[in-house]
Amino acid sequence: MTSAEGVGLELEDIQSGALHERPSPYAGTYLLLRIDDRAAGRELVRRLHSIVDHGRPSDPNDDTWITAAFTYQGLKALGVPQASLDSFAPEFRQGMAARAAELGDVGDSSPAHWERPLGTQDVHVALAALSPDPTRLRVVVERALRAQHDLPGIELIWRQDCYQLATGRTSFGFKDGIGQPAVEGSGIPPTNPREKPLKAGEIILGYPDETGELPPMPTPDVLGRNGTYVVFRKLHTRVAAYRQYLRAKAGNRGAEALIGAKMVGRWQSGAPLTLAPERDDPDLGADPHRNNDFAYADDLRGFRCPVGAHARRANPRDALDEDGSVNVRLHRMIRRGTSYGPALPEGVLEDDGADRGIIFVFAGSHIRRQFEFVKTQWLNDGIFIGVPSEKDPLVGPNDGSGTFTIPARPIRRRLQQLPPFVVTRGGEYCFAPSLRALRWLAELKT
Ligand code: HEM
Description:
24% of the residues lie in helices and 18% in strands. Strands 5, 6, 7, 8 and 11 form a 5-stranded antiparallel β-sheet that branches. A 4-stranded antiparallel β-sheet has the order 2-3-1-4. By secondary structure, it is α+β, with helices and mostly antiparallel strands. The radius of gyration is 21 Å and the shape is globular. The longest helix is centred in the first third of the chain and has 14 residues, at 38-51. A hairpin with a 6-residue loop joins strand 9 and strand 10. It has helices at 16-19, 38-51, 72-77, 82-85, 90-94, 100-103, 134-146, 221-224, 239-250, 253-264, 282-286, 310-314, 367-379, 435-442, and strands spanning 26-35, 65-70, 125-131, 154-164, 228-237, 334-335, 338-340, 357-364, 402-406, 413-418, 422-432. Residues 170, 172, 174, 176-179, 235, 237, 264, 266, 310-311, 314-315, 333, 335, 357-358, 360, 371, 374-375, 379, 395, 422 line the site of protoporphyrin IX containing FE.
């Protein structure tokens, strides 16, 4: 097996999903399966082994791939020995629904209201099929479906189509997927030259992470190594409510765009407020060499980008370095978000009842200190920025009483009565094993 320069990441053994950049635009489909019969489950895994793709960059003209991941219940259904099941991270073993209160998935976002079968014991296997266009996607999805269709004992229980527009914009109108850490040994250059590539072990199990240690890894070695945890969440976005809120607070289109940008930390074009504080700069937003090349240390008070803005909360960059108590590098993540549902046409303020939003996907070695930490400590809470009562203005679990502070001279502005703009429709904690681990799972004899 060949390995990448430096850390020796075994790219041929690692599934594409975590390290591989996606084509843009693209079309995708998520499929969830239930395993009712152990032998059929192992046969499914054997077939998946031959159709999933690995993480070595491929020919961009053939940019289609399938990724496979399993929930704790799925590994159990395959007959993974108990000692091995017990070696997985506790949060993964509990599953996302059991973590709801901690994650802020309450009220309309609570598992009681989730779309079935999300959050139930039925979700065992998650497949993601991806392609640059719907025509090629059909072929890949067909390939994924063929792996299970003649297997009694394997049930297709959920399907979700998703896409990324050529503009990279998602339902609230913002370009997304810009802020992304580089990973040592992946061969993908950093988009933020001020952030050193992360140690591979932050994203892929079996390599040292930022602490210098190997992350806790499921046993046996062949099952854990080159695997990664994957979190997916279906997040409904209340776009009409969001637009109405901006209209009510701003009064005119220009001010709406500015307040919207202050809430995110970037303009809709993707231009960061730190570099373009007064007005949007679409050329900057579109330039991958410049749109992620910035820091916050010279804007600690947040006059350019509010400290409570979504992207700044989610990655405070160098702004927390002052007292040294938090190492931001321990809370980074790979995000693979996609849009689902029809876009609400520009300018429409009335809700059309359509379900639209984001399939948020996280990949990393530490569900707790990466995904859960960022979600609970930085997005749902304001203690770390000195305003305990404020939650993330765009994606936080606001309940109509929340506030958002926009620092300004001579006096700051405070937006009141923030409603929830994002409602969790469900999700799962999964594990995407290496290709060798897939073979091991298929050949289990228990
Ligand atoms: C519907 C829900 C969400 C929406 C609409 C949303 C939207 C956005 C947008 C527009 C950006 C700026 C573009 C970019 O830097 O890529 C962004 C950045 C980011 N978001 Fe979210 N997001 C959502 C949920 C989440 C969640 C749940 C997390 C983590 C738990 C998260 C973590 C991040 C991170 C880490 C960044 C990059 C920040 C940076 O590196 O500067 N987001 N998001």
